[in-house]
Amino acid sequence: MTERRLRVGIVGLQAGRSWAARAHVPALQALSDTFEIVGVANTSLSSAQAAVAEMGLSSTPFASVAELVAAPDVDIVTVTVKVPPHFDIVKAAIAAGKHVYCEWPLGNGLAEAEAMATLAREKGVLGVVGTQARLAPEIKYLRQLIADGFVGDVLSTTLVARAGAALGAGIISEKRTYGYLLDRANGANALTIPVGHTLAALRDVLGEVAEISALLATKRPLAFAVDTQEWLPVSAPDQILVSGVMASGAPISIHYRGGPARDDNGLFWEIHGTEGDIRITGASGHTQMVQLSLQGARGEDKVFRPLEVPASHRAGWPREVEPGNVARLYASMADDLQNGTRTAPSFDDAVAVHRIIAAIEKSAESGKRVELS
């Protein structure tokens, strides 16, 4: 517990619709002994005022992001806007000496992520990234099971998943909210968002990826916007196929498909070992947002049985998946600020995931296998 509460300024809060409203505000309110939301900044003062009022906050609405970043009573700047502005906002926050919680993807590509990590390191501030699937109780327990030898030596891992309704489905509900996901140049698509979040968790469980071979395809070159009744061009991939080798030597196979699952089976991840197997399932490939389930089989078992996460992994946290995982990340951030540890997903961790994504893109463009150093 900190001696005084850490004061958070949120960039990008809209009641009822934004990720900050769904996950960050309830997460911070659940940690009210440690954090307080002192400020909100959107594209205008009126927007920030509306967000503060509609969310029932006592925070200060700021007329601009620059004013929030410069405010002396803000310790942490939380960045929850679309990906393209991340770099400028994070750069300004770091220059002002603020700690930063930036949603994933950290940057629009590897170069921006590397630059932000360097800036944070040089300024001596803590930068954490919202790869909150790493903090999910099921992922933490999975990491423990693998480390304890449940499957023995890992022989291979296979992951097949769906990217969700707004990514690669050929239809979006709102052009203003989801249209930018269609353009690959914006850095927010099926590869960078659900695949990126899942790669962050996979690295925690199985270690580093050593080699990548990939294929990216855009099989739905048009998407229909329901609100404006128009067809929009799509350059973002809706089929992502990756094969490779982990640093351990275990082969890895990943296939993400655009759009939602027909049922509630949108994620199938299996870890195969010398002594057993574990399956991780969920409603979609957004491992950071959905309830995950674990099943395992060992030795002569002919069926998989549920692997129940110990109650200690869930006690004291919000029950809902999204604010629960975000709250765990904020708590890790607070521990790091208090104790000088580095337990929360850092900007350097984000760079490592961005490097894998860059390797996937390079392999897909060149048709050649890419090694990651």
Please provide a brief summary of the model.
The protein has ten helices and 18 strands. It starts with 5 loop residues before the first strand and ends with a strand. With about 375 residues, the chain is of the alpha/beta class.
**Total helix count?**
10
In CATH, what is the homologous superfamily of the largest domain? Dihydrodipicolinate Reductase, domain 2
In the residues, how many domains can be counted? 2
Provide the residue-averaged pLDDT.
97
Distance between the termini: 38 Å
What is the fold-level CATH name, i.e. the topology of the largest domain?
Dihydrodipicolinate Reductase, domain 2
Radius of gyration from CA coordinates: 20 Å
Please describe the structure with a list of short key phrases separated by commas or semicolons.
Gal80p-like_C; Dihydrodipicolinate Reductase, domain 2; Gfo/Idh/MocA family oxidoreductase; single chain; 2 domains; 373 residues; Gfo/Idh/MocA-like_OxRdtase_N; alpha/beta; nine-stranded mixed beta sheet; Rossmann fold; Gfo/Idh/MocA_oxidoreduct; six-stranded parallel beta sheet
Please describe what this structure looks like:
The chain has ten helices and 18 strands. With 373 residues, the chain is of the alpha/beta class. The chain folds into two domains: 6-132 and 322-346, NAD(P)-binding Rossmann-like Domain (Rossmann fold, 3-Layer(aba) Sandwich); 134-309, Dihydrodipicolinate Reductase, domain 2, CATH 3.30.360.10. The longest helix is centred in the last third of the chain and has 20 residues, at 347-366.
Protein topology:
Blueprint: E1 6-11, H1 19-30, E2 35-41, H2 45-55, E3 60-62, H3 65-70, E4 76-79, H4 86-95, E5 99-103, H5 110-123, E6 127-130, H6 137-147, E7 154-162, E8 171-172, H7 175-178, H8 191-206, E9 209-217, E10 222-225, E11 230-233, E12 239-246, E13 251-257, E14 267-273, E15 276-282, E16 293-298, E17 305-306, H9 321-339, H10 347-366, E18 370-371
Parallel strand pairs: 1-2, 1-4, 2-3, 4-5, 5-6, 7-13, 8-10
Antiparallel strand pairs: 7-14, 9-12, 9-18, 10-11, 12-13, 14-15, 15-16, 16-17
Helix pairs in contact: 1-9, 4-5, 5-10, 6-8, 8-10
